[in-house]
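re the bet — no i am not wrong, look at it urself. input seq straight from the record:
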Amino acid sequence: MSDVAVVLSLVGEFKPDVIIWTVMNHEREEEIAETVMPILCEAVGDIRVIFVSTSVAYEKNMSEDVEPFLRAKESYNHHYFNGKIKSECVISKLPNYCIVRPGSIYGIDPFGEMDNRSLALKKHVDSGEKYIRANNIEFSIVDVNELADAIIELTTNDYVGILNVSE
């Protein structure tokens, strides 16, 4: 969704009541934040925008007003995290927005397929191998279907602001 003209055309053609932005691109997230989001936000007016961000880039037991920090180029997934942070700054200026910060998302999709994280973990469990991803991570994982239900509920809710749905 980095083609601004296409995004604006879709918004103009369908005239949605709500836009749920779930785009995730590890390499181009900053580019999307800097080129697409300002133009999209200018065009949406009063349309409700629900932006799925990330909480992995923040801190343990964070509040909704936590100040996110930009990652250095040497940091893991810096384009992704920085892009989410930059998009949040743009979106938070809209009159009818909600930013949802989930932790890592896992689960089974509507077609009965597991996501890559769940498949990798299942492989280790089935093999009997010891599995340690990292000893210093403290966060919750979020079931994709529960997250979807929460986002659907937000489409008809008047809440404006940031919601952390993990940690």
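see?? Residues 109 and 134 are 26 Å apart (CA to CA). told u. also Residues 4-164 form a domain with the Rossmann fold fold (CATH 3.40.50.720). so pay up
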